[in-house]
Amino acid sequence: LSGARARASRELVEFALSAYCGLLKANSVVSELIKRKILLHRKHSNELSVWHGTDADLRGRLETEMSRRSEPLNVVAALNSELPAPVWKPIRYNDDFKISRYYRSEYRRVAEFASAIDIHRASDAPFADGHVVYLIPESEAECVRAREVAASLTKQVSNLVVVFPVKPLRLVLPLGEIDAIHALQRDRELVDSDPLVTSELQQMLEDSRAHVQRTMDSVLVPDGKSTVWYAGGKERMLGGAAALRELLSRQMDKRFSKAPRIANELIVRKKPTAVVVNARKKLVLAIMERSGKDSLGIEGRSADHSMFRCLLLNTGIYRRQTEEAWRYASPEEIPDEGLRTVWVELKSFVSTPEPEAKSLARFFALLQQPPFGVRDGLIPILFAAALKAFPAPVTLSRRGEYVGDILPSTIEDLFRNPEDFRFTVLDLGEKECAYLRRVHQLFSGTEGTSPAEGDLVRLAFESVEAWKRQLPPASLKTYRISPEAKRLRDVVHQPADALVLLLNAMPRAVGQPNDLTEAYRALSEAKAKLEKVPEQFEMAASEAVRRSLGVADIVDRGLRGVCDVWISAIPQSIRERLKANRDDPRPGALIERMMIRYETDDQLLQSLCSLVSDTRPARWEDTTPAVFARTFDDTVRRIEAAAVEAAIEATLSDDEKDSMARLGQARLRAILGMLSDVVGRTRAASLAQQTIDELGKRVRA
User: Fold this and answer.
1) Is 326 helix (H, G, I), strand (E, B) or coil?
2) Which residue from 104, 102, 377, 383 is spatially nearest to 262, judged by alpha carbons?
3) 489 with 506: CB under 8 angstroms?
4) Whole-angstrom Cα distance, residue 100 to residue 114?
5) Which residues partner with 8 through β-bridges?
6) pLDDT 10s digits, 678-699
7) CB 552 within 8 A of CB 665
8) Is 131 exposed, middle or buried (0-12, 13-18, 19+ CB in 10 A)?
9) Nearest CA among 326, 261, 272 for reference residue 303
10) What pTM was computed for the model?
11) pLDDT per residue over 503-528, tens digit each?
12) HEC states along 202-269?
């Protein structure tokens, strides 16, 4: 017994002492030493240790603490807290199916477990694939009742195993001591009274725990005599842990007979880590965007490449078609029976048309439940692969809003929150397919291409969405378009399901709800009118420039030619003076723009529009052309007025006066041309002569 905490059994101490004084005397001496508390006796382990100096009567305090507890001890709760039941795994099944299934274990009272609610809770325990229940009878009568309960419940639940001891375990006293010792350890006054109290209490706790452990060892692991095991409604004779694991494997063989065999423990689990989920997103992205390429275009030896090899390549789902092309396998090409069956279910779900939306939550639950038992980590990858392997006209919407582009985050969200999504597989006829194909070509500008039938709805919708986004602001604001074009513009900017938009709303907007052929023709016309709105504004702006400059006889030279003629007629001195005027900068800015050598008439027009109206025609509103015309004409008149004023003040040279004279002559010809259009050439000539005569009289006067 020397040493700090050396222990020995009472029998061993008495045997050693008997060599000096005989066995009877040794027993008497040891009893006296225990009575005087020189030796400490651990009742449950029957061990002795030397007292190390604490004066506290811990045994007395423990008995007092236990006696003052009025409520009976909950043995099951205490066991679950102090000695959690072990987790059991069906080792052979896991090795065969390359998965990690396990049985969750817990202690239960016999009376509490005899209900249908507990059957359901036991069979559907979170994350567990099965359930082992250790019934703790507290009397002989409960041992008899435990046999009836075990036979009944295991017959109803295929993945349930129930075990109970042959005789009551009598655990109330040691578990009560453990509970009381915990209470003493929380008593600060007792703990602070002596430095050795804490260690003594810990020794007492370990002694009680060791006793409970020895008692439960024969219950937790089958030994063929101390416990009775039930599974499938029958008593099972089990001799050791290996026999129990084989029983669990047979249960899993029956329950998850069609589970796919995929060798990747990182992803074949119910809750992958954040790192694995990130790699899964990368693999899903490769599936959605690079299907048909070698290794889905994944380079290197990353986690997503490892998943690709294990889940798609090694299983035969993704295979080579030609030297450069790869494809997804049909179900009959999959060698593994379980994976082949799952692949059939996925194909049916993503490609079989139904009149109503399909329930994603129900389908995912089907894959997770027997006989498939697909782990949660696999489902997003297999679902994305099925979408590409079996293309069909489908629509996907989230909370009523169409999902235009299925991203990896969409697949993840779709699996986590399937109730938020509506997944519909469409049954389209030849007319609808031809119409959708032409709509895709019309709005994407890809005439002559032939998209896959499974992508028709998505491609057509995405082309309409892309066209809508690139429409110039002028097309979105104007009301100077046909009613059909206006309704088309309005309907494509309203949130709607892709199928409803393409086959119902858009044909109705252009007045052809019942004839898709005519609807396509009307859509083409309405689309062209919306796209030409900026062009119409440009034509109005060009006409306003020509009208203000008034150079009608050189109209065939284009807008740059008209502006060159006009600006060359403005004297150089006037141009410099106007450009230097900071109080009224617009005339000088207009002169500068006209003097720039633009490559095209359109560049010049865009520059003039930006100067005068602060925006280009693509952003104009319906009132902007009139505002532009007035502002431009006013600026031109101010420039010409400055030139005329300089001429009157005789500050211009003869050459500058000749240039202005040519401009005035061109302006006169423009006015005479307009007069001829109104009253005819003869009448116009007469009026012109009359005007010249009157002018001559005023000059002579």
Assistant:
1) strand
2) 377
3) no
4) 30
5) 48
6) 888 888 788 878 877 777 776 5
7) no
8) buried
9) 272
10) 0.68
11) 889 999 999 988 999 999 999 999 99
12) HHHHHHHHHHHHHHHHHHHCCCCCCEEEEECCEEECCCCHHHHHHHHHHHHHHHCCCCCCCCCCCCCC
